[in-house]
Amino acid sequence: MVQSLDRSQGRAGGVATGSANNHGTYTGNRALQIEEPLIFEMGQTGRCGVDLPEPPKVKERLNGLRRKGTIGLPGLAEPQVVQHYTRLSQKNYAIDMGVYPLGSCTMKHNPRINEKVARLPGIGDLHPLQPVSTVQGALELIDSLAHWLKTLTGMPAVAMSPAAGAHGEMCGMMAIAAALEAKGERAKRKTVLAPESAHGTNPATAAALGFVVKPIPANDRGRVDLAALKAALGPDVAAIMLTNPNTCGLFESDIVEISKAVHEAGAYFYCDGANFNAIVGRVRPGDLGIDCMHINLHKTFSTPHGGGGPGAGPVVLSAPLAPYAPYPWIVKDGDTWRVAEDGAKVEGAPLGRLKAFHGQMGMFTRALAYIMSHGADGLKQVAEDAVLNANYVMAALKDVMSPAFEGPCMHEALFDDSFLKDTGVSTLDFAKAMIDEGYHPMTMYFPLVVHGAMLIEPTETVAKEDLDQFIGALRSLTAKAKTGTAAEDFKAAPLYAPRRRLDETLAARKPVLRWKPSNNPPGIDPLKQAAE
Amino acid sequence: MRYLPLTDADRREMLSVIGAKSVDELFRDVPASARLAAKVGGLPDHQGELEVERAFQGFAAKNLSPASTPFFIGAGAYRHHVPATVDYMIQRGEFLTSYTPYQPEITQGTLQYLFEFQTQVTLLTGMDVANASMYDGSTGTAEAVLMANRITRRHKALISGGLHPQYRSVIETTAKWEGFTAALSKTDAEGLEDLIAAVDRDTSCVVVQNPSFFGHIRDFTKLAAACHAAGALLIVVVTEVVSLGLLMPPGEMGADIVVCEGQSIGNGLGFGGPYVGLFATRDKYMRQMPGRLVGETVDADGKRGFVLTLSTREQHIRREKATSNICTNAGLCALAFTVHLTLLGEAGFARLAELNHAKASQLADKLAAVPGVKLLNDSFFNEFTVKLPKPAAEVVEALAAKRILGGLPVSRLIPNDPSVENLLLLAATETATDAGMDPLVAALKEVL
């Protein structure tokens, strides 16, 4: 295993030249691939996509602060808006289209019943501050999901309000800080241990809370080096942040000993639950001795990733951390549900509030629908099939690609780039060539501890015949790369996507983050320019 | 199980390729003490779609839907009509089931709508740049304070008494654990607050809300000047983004960072989330922003395209030195915002705002005519505060018993404060009708 300093995530390197996409149509379109301008280049004054009544005449009470001048929003009619966003949608790859093996992200099927129930009248349209007597079913729903999450993880408490995994990390680490403060140890315990393979959110979270992050090395099996960890533990350590299964797709086999050592040193164990899908229904993290873990509902429990959110990141808490859970939470008084909000008299010492209202209710609804659809039996099968699929990919590719570690893996298969040595093809090139084969590339250059990492997470919702085709495509690309004469082809990929490789250096050097009329050179029609 | 394509025959064949006798073998790295022999106990087994839907209808039946009743609650979440096109568009699988656009060649759809979103946000707020969304207004506000602390290298934020109480709590929590001072100005129900005298050389930023939590509309131009003279930043929060269709944008008042709750455009009430935070600032602070940014560039053929950019601020590159730990944000809610605002356009957005103000004015006049009810606001957009002759919480419960959702008792969010006990906050949007307002007025007369 070679330590990599390449943190470019594929950003380094120039843009390849050559062209395959210019077929010279008048419009610049290529059949179903339609070039689409920005809404700001399409609008006309006098067009509108909604019909609203004339406002009744009233005395204006705006304190003289009426907006002067126009906003600059374009006017489009409804059919134009529908066509515009439909055309944009067709430039996206998505789970609904095929294998999306983005390691660490758990891109599994998003069932549509979840969307339907989240929109039911009486669920999707409730105001968060309606009298609690009028939202008893909503509070019961949140508590039902909380019950499932606690039972599946074997943990006694859960904070539901964090808005995403990273927000959940913040919640969990604040709870640890609060517990330390209650013991009078916050000032002396300033160190947080995290493996070098950790998600970037882990060190970012710990640092935001004033902790100093100290990396702990991995052993040659891709796991935390137990001896090094024990040596690092001391009276200055607040917590360890560990992903399990880890970002190399491996189960931390020493985890019970790790948690014992951490607790003996007076520290807490934060578990990053991003990879819970590998063990859901088969292993309860509570049995491993952890103190808190966030659960990405958009990963394990299939709420849609939505182009980058919204997510939800409930955090399960051990008994020592439960008293510090933030507001709000749901309590039951006899037959009545209540919400404990800021200022409510409660047992414990809530760490505060992380977010307005009650958390990502829309995500709770979808996750609960998914969980109820699977049940305890189905969720166990989820973990088994996810792990089986990943191991199948690993087994079917290990003779031509280079697995980073000995198997078995859990829910994702990690390769390094040694199989590409001397081919002139990089991990980035290999990934871009997958696009032309009709796949979303795997996660690349992460984790950082593996050179040219390729992290493949098929998830349990891919059929075997689709996996076989995917494996066939990767074997074919591997064979092509190893001819030693195909580097130029790889560097030119993708050829068939809506766009070829984009100049990320230019984007960062001269940031253009909004449309302005002056963005378009005078006299040049952006659409015609695209067509040329 | 309908979501799992593998058959038993598939599983056997795959195990033989792997060279394992059973799936259990693949879990051999799990300590034996933690390996469950059977499924997790105490939980039901799988159910069909019909049964699942029935269960959720059961939950829904125990709630009072705002659609079925006179409804006047706001306080940071507003009931607006969302065109059917919006919900159709965000449910297209290419948007719904895609992820963060790490591979720009095959995610131009997401990247382009986020670029449109960023542009719309700058136009509404009167600012230079905006990011690709935050979780919501409350977390966005806390991030804005952290950003101001980074820029000014100071550690004291001055928080207006007109800021939403739960936003104040989120800032207070962030301050406590991330190590800065949040100086909380006292509750400002009357809208008389003037923070200029409180700005000093230690102040990193002043956080105000417009219209305020209690509905008052204020000009913060002088406060912005005072902040800048002291080397501090002005953060303006807008929890009702529709107000920007009618009101002077915070950018024109001199704001340095503007945070809005974007829920009102495109996103339903959803019992509090997911929502979408809008976050905008000045060009000079671009590289201190939290969250994702989309920028324009060209591809290898010279065609315009969009990419995630300036990632060297972010956690996956900078790790412990990142500007924020944010990763996933609110992409799909941002799409809903963008589609709705595109449907509205200049004319529709302005008219929507006029309608909201007109409906709220009608409601205010009707309520002010009820004996014992006193309107606290000289100015408001679509939400205002009234003082009742008795505790508002009791009144709201009595109205709920009549199936009327008649506003928010301020004491729910500011408990244990006698000065707000009788205050009721009411909002009226374009969805309000005479058929809803008149029963509220009649019921209020009965319960007061």
TrEMBL record, chain A:
Sample GO molecular function, one term: glycine dehydrogenase (decarboxylating) activity
Keywords linked to the UniProt accession: Oxidoreductase, Pyridoxal phosphate
Residue ranges with Polar residues bias: 18-27
Coiled coil location: none
Keyword Oxidoreductase: yes
Enzyme class: oxidoreductase
Aminotransferase class V domain mapped to chain residues: 173-306
Glycine dehydrogenase C-terminal domain residues: 384-482
Tagged with keyword Nuclease: no
Residue numbers spanned by region Disordered: 1-27, 513-532
One Pfam assignment: Aminotran_5
Database matches in InterPro entries: Aminotrans_V_dom, GDC-P_C, GDC_P, PyrdxlP-dep_Trfase, PyrdxlP-dep_Trfase_major, PyrdxlP-dep_Trfase_small
SUPFAM superfamilies associated with the record: PLP-dependent transferases
Record-listed E.C. numbers: 1.4.4.2
Physiological role: The glycine cleavage system catalyzes the degradation of glycine. The P protein binds the alpha-amino group of glycine through its pyridoxal phosphate cofactor; CO(2) is released and the remaining methylamine moiety is then transferred to the lipoamide cofactor of the H protein.
PANTHER family hit by this protein: GLYCINE DEHYDROGENASE (DECARBOXYLATING), MITOCHONDRIAL, GLYCINE DEHYDROGENASE, DECARBOXYLATING
Protein's name according to its UniProt entry: glycine dehydrogenase (aminomethyl-transferring)
Automatic annotation (TrEMBL), chain B:
A GO molecular-function annotation: glycine dehydrogenase (decarboxylating) activity
EC number: 1.4.4.2
Keywords on record: Oxidoreductase
Gene3D superfamilies assigned: Aspartate Aminotransferase, domain 1, Type I PLP-dependent aspartate aminotransferase-like (Major domain)
Signal sequence segment: none
Reactions mediated catalytically: N(6)-[(R)-lipoyl]-L-lysyl-[glycine-cleavage complex H protein] + glycine + H(+) = N(6)-[(R)-S(8)-aminomethyldihydrolipoyl]-L-lysyl-[glycine-cleavage complex H protein] + CO2
Highest taxon in the source lineage: Bacteria
Coiled-coil intervals, chain numbering: none
Key word Oxidoreductase present: yes
SUPFAM superfamilies reported for this sequence: PLP-dependent transferases
Glycine cleavage system P-protein N-terminal domain segment(s): 1-440
Function: The glycine cleavage system catalyzes the degradation of glycine. The P protein binds the alpha-amino group of glycine through its pyridoxal phosphate cofactor; CO(2) is released and the remaining methylamine moiety is then transferred to the lipoamide cofactor of the H protein.
Subunit note: The glycine cleavage system is composed of four proteins: P, T, L and H. In this organism, the P 'protein' is a heterodimer of two subunits.
Family, similarity comment: Belongs to the GcvP family. N-terminal subunit subfamily.
Protein name as catalogued: Probable glycine dehydrogenase (decarboxylating) subunit 1
